[in-house]
Specification:
Keywords: Membrane, Transmembrane, Transmembrane helix. The chain has about 350 residues and is an alpha+beta fold. The chain has helices at about 15-25, 100-110, 120-135, 145-160, 165-180, 185-210, 215-235, 245-265, 280-290, 295-310, 320-335, and strands spanning about 5, 25-30, 30-35, 35-40, 50, 55-65, 80-85, 90-95.
Length: about 350
């Protein structure tokens, strides 16, 4: 190993076991899931620390969100963290660039380390309270029309669940499109200009260092490489796959793939338009019917739209609803809730 992971808690692995486990660990974002331990990042170095699972009590997600996250005017600006509780209450917080990596890591832990709590203590209490409140909101008895709507929506959701990659790509492409539509193009070209200056500075710095023609060459080189790595890592540069045309084509392709899939729906017409065809949309529509906010399928869709429109920077929501809103709201924003 180039960098031997540092022991974070009281428990430790022997060197040979640690080396083999880290080498075979599943890398997810800056962290890693091994058979013996969880590998956590420092601010600069991925998988810098390790914690054997025996010392871990909880692993959960924490999200800091900007005011633009729920508004129609901003992008989904959020910062995701992985929080690990160990040794009787100590915490280690790891920052992730992509929230989906946090979700993927927790999903792996749920399968491979089922003894771990994947919610904070407060989160577990809130989840129990929310489950009780949700059960209380459900109508004790539904009309025949409402039951029919539930059957229609349940079948449609099962159909989408059979091809989860289509829904995932539809959401990801629409979120990327939303971010692109809300960003100012000038920022990318400023980033490109700084990147070019960084390349030039790095080249000049290296030339100065090796030719001994200047005393500040190393500083130029460091500045240049810093600019190169910074703008490359944050996908700020317009490239072949990161430009307006490519992003819009990706969104169109995702919509076309979903439209083709729902066209072959075996139970007649699909209950929602193809660009809203996502399991979470259908799940929220079912909730609206069960809670008495809608009876028919169109009414259920209107209820979902009304709820999404009501969410803004001043509205606090539970983590579960936040996760769902982040996935589907771009679908509605990009089509003006039509």
């Amino acid at each position: 190993m180039i960098f031997k992971p540092a022991q974070l808690g009281m428990a430790k692995l022997d060197p040979q076991e640690l080396e083999a486990d880290k080498k075979a660990c599943r890398k997810i974002g800056p962290c890693g899931v091994g058979k013996k331990a969880l590998y956590l990042n420092s601010f600069y170095i991925d998988r810098r620390y390790y914690l054997p699972y025996g010392s871990i009590t909880r692993v959960f997600k924490r999200v800091a969100m900007s005011s633009g996250g729920f508004s129609g005017k901003g992008v989904f600006a959020s910062m995701a963290y992985l929080v690990v509780e160990y040794d009787g209450g100590k915490q280690k917080q790891c920052n992730f660039k992509d929230e989906r990596d946090v979700d993927a890591l927790l999903e792996v832990l749920a399968k491979e380390q089922p003894q771990l709590h994947l919610l904070s203590a407060a989160g577990e209490q809130a989840l129990e309270k929310k489950a009780a409140e949700k059960a209380a909101r459900k109508l004790p008895e539904l009309s025949e029309d409402a039951q029919h709507s539930l059957t229609v929506l349940r079948r449609a959701k099962e159909y989408l669940d059979a091809k989860p990659e289509l829904s995932a790509e539809l959401s990801a492409a629409q979120r990327r499109k939303r971010a692109q539509l809300q960003s100012k193009p000038v920022y990318r070209y400023v980033a490109l200009a700084i990147f070019v200056l960084g390349v030039a500075a790095a080249a000049y710095g290296l030339y100065s260092v090796f030719s001994h023609t200047g005393s500040y060459g190393v500083y130029f080189a460091l500045f240049g490489f810093a600019a190169i790595f910074l703008f490359s890592s944050y996908n700020m540069l317009p490239t072949a796959h990161n430009n307006n045309n490519a992003i819009m084509k990706r969104a169109e392709k995702a919509e076309a793939a979903m439209a083709e899939y729902v066209k072959h729906y075996p139970h007649g017409a699909f209950p929602v338009k193809s660009w809203y065809a996502h399991p979470i949309v259908l799940k929220q529509m079912m909730d609206a019917v069960e809670e008495g906010r809608a009876v028919t399928v169109p009414e259920a869709l209107d209820a979902v739209k009304a709820r999404l429109k009501s969410l803004n920077a001043d509205v606090q929501v539970e983590q579960e609803e936040y996760d769902e809103v982040v996935v589907i709201k771009a679908l509605f924003l990009n089509h003006d809730y039509q």
